[in-house]
Amino acid sequence: MVASQIVRLHQHDAESWIFWDYAGRLGGLAVLAAIPSARDVAFRYDKRKIPLWEIPLWIVGVVVADFFFSRWTRRIISNAFPQTVLGVYPRPSGSLYLLDLLLGLALVAYSEEVVFRRCASNVFKPYSGDGYALVFTTSVLFGCFHWWTGLGNMVAAAATGVPLMLLLLRSGVLWPAVLAHYLVDIVYFT
Fold first, then answer.
1. What is the pLDDT of residue 10?
2. 110: in domain
3. Where are the alpha helices (DSSP H) in the chain?
4. What is the pTM (predicted TM-score) of this model?
């Protein structure tokens, strides 16, 4: 996935940029699916630990927190350190925009949640436990994955990673974090 980010830095038209983005994400998921031990972690079925009615409250909380905190954080830090922004998302138009908004952002949310919430938490849990150290570690790693978008977006992504990881730990299942991540991205990109 990081390799596709590097290739995307040199893509200036939306079609090429989206192609490399999707290829990197699908490639990352394919690697996880191809390795049995990684597949067992990345794509396992977990049992929900909270009542179904609580999940929408968490999702709305994550989206609202991201909307109010991340917008100004991203703007202030990016304006203070504009040289840290290495690339931009070339906004597509027409049907490609709709495809990217509906399917592309779903792929983004799913792939990033699998890698940074499920797999990273599995890797770091033996060293940090399942408390705040794990939340902090996975959130910082998630923020660092957004390196090419600048320091402001890295801080905003790390901050959004905190409630997403808390949601995973609380609910025990990945799909609420994927849905919250998808909605955060929909709000950001529309």
1. 84
2. yes
3. 2-8, 14-34, 36-42, 54-65, 71-80, 94-99, 105-112, 120-128, 132-145, 151-171, 175-189
4. 0.95
In a domain, 17, yes or no: no
Query: What is the C-alpha to C-alpha distance for residues 151 and 148, in angstroms, rounded to an integer?
Result: 9
Q: Are 64 and 40 in contact (CB under 8 A)?
A: no
38 CA to centre of own chain: 19
Q: pLDDT for 58-114, tens place per residue?
A: 999 999 999 999 889 999 999 999 999 999 889 899 999 999 999 999 999 999 999
The answer to whether residues 145 and 112 touch, using CB atoms and an 8 Å cutoff, is yes
Residue 73 neighbours by CB under 8 Å, 6+ apart = 152, 155, 156, 159
Task: Name the phi and psi angles at 131, rounded to 5.
Answer: -110, -145
- Can you tell me the distance from the alpha carbon of 85 to that of 170, in angstroms, rounded to the nearest whole number? 34
Q: Rounded to an integer, what is the distance from CA 64 to the centroid of its chain?
A: 16
According to the model, what pLDDT value does residue 50 have?
97
- The answer to whether residue 16 is domain-embedded is no
Enumerate residue ranges in the chain where pLDDT < 50: none
What residue numbers bound the domain in which 58 lies? 48-189
Q: Which residue has the tokens 């792939």?
A: 111
Count of the separate structural domains present in the chain: 1
Measure the CA–CA gap between 94 and 71, rounded to whole angstroms.
26
